[in-house]
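1st attempt posting a full record on here, be nice pls
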Amino acid sequence: MNFDEKTAIEIIEKYNLAKNTLGVWRTRNAIPDKYFRENFKIEQKVSGERDEQMFKDFKKITEYKKINIQALRRLAGISESRFRDVMYNSITLKKNEIVELKKAINILRIEAKECLEAFSQGVVSDLKERKLKSFLKRTEVKTLNLFDSKRDVYNKFDGWMMGRRSFPIECKSELQHALLVFITETTML
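the predicted structure (as tokens):
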């Protein structure tokens, strides 16, 4: 819509927009059409007990060091701009976005469980190795952090994943421990 000072001021007051919005709209000589749609609703800051809990859950997920949060965001199908708004502006995620994030975490947890079960059964087969490589190479998993920043263990698995060495059987217990911890910790997210 073309810029109209009176209408612009009403919209700014109605939606509690920033004071400089009036100047921006005046310069552009237009008010965004979205403010005139019947179903338009501005995202609200965190308020209320339920929103606070959802925001805490979200923060807990973003602070977990063994998951690459940007890759998890992509897996969950949440846009980068929306995600940034939630992280830095205390805007709440929609319920379906929280559900998608938790589904993405469940995907990682299920794969970690499958790897743990496969390696708990004894002999290391090619299928088990492929499954583990697939999990450790996922962009959502921070492999070094998975091994609690134990660089020597990480280097052995990294060499194995890159085909420079055989499976580091001497580190099997560290791998099982890392997977078990990951499964347990992601259950609490």
